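Audit log entry. Action: structure prediction of a protein-small molecule complex. Ligand: S-adenosylmethionine. The ligand was supplied as SMILES and no pocket hint was given, so placement is left entirely to the predictor. Protonation state taken as written. Sequence taken verbatim from the request; no trimming, no tag removal. Recorded inputs:
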Amino acid sequence: MSFSAAWLELREPHDRRARNSPVIEAVTATLAGLPSVTIVDLASGTGSTFRALRPLLGVRQSWRLIDNDLSLLARAPQSLPPDISVTAVPTDLNRDLEAALDGPVDLVTTSALLDLVSDDWLQRLVVETAARRLPVYAALSYDGRVEMSPADATDEQIVAAVNAHQRTDKGFGLALGREAAPQAIQRFERVGYTLAQGQSDWVFAPNDREIQVEVLSGWAAAARDIGEIPLSDVIAWLKRRRDLVTAGRSSIRVGHVDFFARPTATR
Ligand SMILES: C[S@@+](CC[C@H](N)C(=O)[O-])C[C@H]1O[C@@H](n2cnc3c(N)ncnc32)[C@H](O)[C@@H]1O
């Protein structure tokens, strides 16, 4: 599954606002005191997590941005001060997750990835990071909660179709969708990790027209692909919702979860 740079750029400020602050504080507290940190960002896109965390880590930073999309990696930050380095590493994480984690690493990060991955891949992530005793910061996993205001009679059916679409194959086998974050949290707890977790919802105000239209169009396409709602109903729903956005009367909340999983000192 591919993601356009334009879409990632559009969502980045909303992601930044949504990121759960206590979870980020748990990340920075864990790294505090280290003279330098090496961070591996899985499915980095153009570097959204790098841009969010970089100003909060007051130390020398070395980032490896891992993605299989060369055109996104080509947009990774380049001219940086001497105490920050960013290396783009083209990698298919479905095939080569283990290689991406090898070498010196202090923190693994990812954002907007876990809802795309399969149960098997998630298990690999937990096993491989636990084997290396690596802390993991995973932000912005979609959790299935959607609130649209004002409400429309077809909203519920559309959201059900979106959540069904989230379970289809996104390149890692059948995806976990909204189950991803709770599953990941449970599995890290089982291998003795300490968890900080919290919501990181997108909250789109009436003025956030561009991202609302983009998200609504994506949901209509997902409902079309699932095929359980007559196409004419999907189109009519999209038109009504877009009209509300244009009129400045639409607000949308989309549920996400962030967590930070840290290996405890003794297991
Ligand atoms: C929703 S985007 C999130 C990007 C970035 N983390 C962010 O928050 O802006 C998902 C990312 O996963 C990457 N991706 C999807 N399948 C992948 C795979 N098999 N190996 C590596 N990256 C993959 C995509 O290229 C894309 O950059």
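Audit: result stored. The chain has a mean pLDDT of 97. The pocket of S-adenosylmethionine is lined by residues 1, 3, 8, 15, 43-45, 48-49, 67-69, 72, 92-94, 111-113, 171 (CB under 6 Å).
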